[in-house]
Structure of CSC1-like protein At1g69450:
Amino acid sequence: MLVSALVTSLAINSGLCVLFFVMYSVLRKQPTNYEVYMPRVLAEGNARRGSRFKLVRLIPSPGWVMRAWKLSEEELLSSSGLDTVVFMRTITFCLKVFTFAGIIGIFVLLPVNCTGTQLHEIDFVNFSNNSLDVFTISNVNNASKRLWIHFSAVYVLTIVICCLLYYEYRYISSKRIAFFLSSKPQPHQFTILVRSIPVSVGSSVSETVESFFKEYHPTTYLSNIVIRRTSKLHALINEAKKQYKRLVHLQTGPSQQKYKRLGFFGHKVDLVDHYEKKLEDIEQSVKLEQSEVSLAEDTQAAFVSFKSRYGAAIAFHLQQSINPTHWITEQAPEPNDVYWPFFSSSFIRRWVSKLVVIVACILLTILFLIPVVVVQGLTNLSQLEIWFPFLKSILTITFVSQVITGYLPSLILQLFLKIVPWIMELLSSIQGYISHSDIEKSACNKVLWFTIWNIFFATVFSGSVLYQLSIFLDLKNIPSKLAVAVPAQASFFIAYVVTSGWTSTATELFRLIPFIFSLVARCFAKREDEELEIPSIPYHRDIPRILFFGLLGITYFFLAPLILPFLLVYLCLAYIIFRNQFINVYTPKYETAGKFWPTVHNSMIFSLILMHAIAVGIFTVKKLSLASTLILPLPVLTLLFNEYCRKRFLPIFVAYSAEVLIKKDREDQNDAEMAEFFDKLATAYQDPALMPVHYSTNTGSLNSPLLSSSEV
């Protein structure tokens, strides 16, 4: 790619970012847009939807930037939880790494690359027509002593990243323990999930569970709640909510919409009465289904609660039966984090679903190579002219060719990637996880490795699936092939960072899709007092993107350091924008207490190993065999460091220690509110679909709930 094509891409994306920032600064101050740009503030009662028009609201102001910048970590922790802190520390970790790497890359490595003569001299007169290859390590002469500067840089960056990883792992581990010790008693801390319960003849599941745990955990057992299959009940309740919304829309709309004529000469039907009768019918269906479900005990699973956290931990970690396939225990998620459809699937269905997910991921990976091949064709004008000869005259126009080769490829790739997080979340939901947080963590890993394979490796090794597989089957030649292919794609990935990084982050701020939906809803006279739904941040979309950019920065650090300033701009934008979103938009729906950090750590270790493999290959290709040999200890030492961190810190993210649990239990012994907490714990894991439901006939306000529930 020529420098001019990259400049065109940079100009387009910079313009879009500025446009989104200005529009956001204006639109966020309009009361009609509070539900788009400040739903969290609105829900907390710190803003009102309706207000008088003021001219000053049309003037863009950067005040939100200062508020986001001044937000402290403790404030973020208290308002949004530890998961949000871990997310922001992932961004700050990358900022630290690439600030250090940028100083070395731009002021040391880039001048070394530019002054090489392996390719050709830089034409500063006609600078825009230079290839970006002259800024990469490819321009350094073979066997040049200057390559030892790159060798030293690889060692230095590896040491710095490992030190920062150790510090972050230790810090977040201590934060996780402190967060647990400072938290109020939570139901999931005292509860486990028990499956494969062997029910004896003449006994119910509840009786069997109570008898077993009273015998083997007599001092700590508290209660149990049997899990039922309620998929049909959930469907009925969802249908009732739809009917209720239609009824409210009719009652608040024009009077002529409340009646409908049957045929040309038929009588008028009162639609309000029609939907009220439908709601009554659904209520009866729900009551009948609840009665049938309450009598059925076909899941052989139950949530079992204990009088102490330590008692729950003992029951979770110990094998409960001589037969390891009976009384299988798992940690219980938070009550609002439970994925209830999991319990409506049989064991065979879940087992088949796991195989289906594996096959679906493989097929998706193969199918995604189609847009990757198309994108690579767009970066090559000669290839494009062969595919579409009728476009040859248009492609000779300088601006058109620059847009097609510099901006369009990464834009197309970004559009295809938009649907990947949603697909991976769907696949994870049928894989057999019992909580929404587990589903999101699984989707996060899937999206990350999908992106690494399909964006990095598929772009670097452009070609068929069989060709890519043949490269990885030939293990000895992987470093040398990476050394040749990776630097050649530096310009594409710089454009990708600008398009996918800068623009997507600005789009996150502007919230284009919710804004459009809001405009459409207003056209259909949406009520202002309708219940506001506050979104939660989709970690499985944003964490993989940050980690992938981290991989690009680490691998291209010594190959093409020109990418580092663009990454720093992206990270600075992400730092401010996401802090603003956590203040005004997102609210957590569940809390994993920082369990996303091991994914971040593993991704960084993989990026380091990949950089080492490329370094071995590049020094071999550059005929500096001694440097290739001296690089070999680096991946070994990095893996040893990773193993130490896995032994030292990872267990903290799997389960809490006896020391922490007993300390927390002793603190609660003098808490007068614990008796009330245990009373509520007995029904905390009651399936919402089994709660008594009552359909309200008063639809004058959407604030009056359709379904009112009471504890049983």
